Amino acid sequence: AQSVSQHNHHVILSEAASLELGCNYSYGGTVNLFWYVQYPGQHLQLLLKYFSGDPLVKGIKGFEAEFIKSKFSFNLRKPSVQWSDTAEYFCAVNARSGAGSYQLTFGKGTKLSVIP
Amino acid sequence: DGGITQSPKYLFRKEGQNVTLSCEQNLNHDAMYWYRQDPGQGLRLIYYSQIVNDFQKGDIAEGYSVSREKKESFPLTVTSAQKNPTAFYLCASSPGLAGGPFTDTQYFGPGTRLTVL
User: Fold this and answer.
1) Measured between CA atoms, how close is A39 to chain B, in angstroms?
2) pLDDT tens digits, residue range A72-83?
3) A51 close contact with B: CB closer than 8 A
4) What's the CA gap between B99 and A18, in Å, rounded?
């Protein structure tokens, strides 16, 4: 079965620190990759996505992610975090199964706390 | 103002009672989804629908039922057969591209927190 692993449950950083959140998946075929973010009290929303082309994708609010196919990874990065980046971040992977059906699997999420 | 609405925000029910959670979207999206979010578990798919009058089971469909009689509405019923119904329920929709379900961006509602006493 397809699985998505987010390595860190809770990350605490000071403002201006660099961020990297890990995401690894188990499926070996063609995948679509997403990072969603849930700010406190707000709806879950898309941060960025990768479907094809340049493996380095840029999203909103200065976030970027790099798809490394050989490592089955799609890590999220930001050079300098702000207090307003405090949120929970979810990696999600869509893949087509051998039976021809699609499956979207979310990771368990990483809570980011940024200290002013 | 386009978006997804879920009502109510908080819902309390006694054990053994069925309860229906509302989800409405005015984004003209074809596909709609229901997820359950538990602390430390991420999101798990309950049901999804690619088109009116059609829906498919997700990973944890047991104890739940849905209907899709209108494009804009996808209500979820939590039945008494669901062994652990207390959770946060999220509804989402997506345009429904030809590439297949889940291939496009999903837009989420604010969620309903269900507590079964």
Assistant:
1) 11
2) 999 999 999 999
3) yes
4) 35
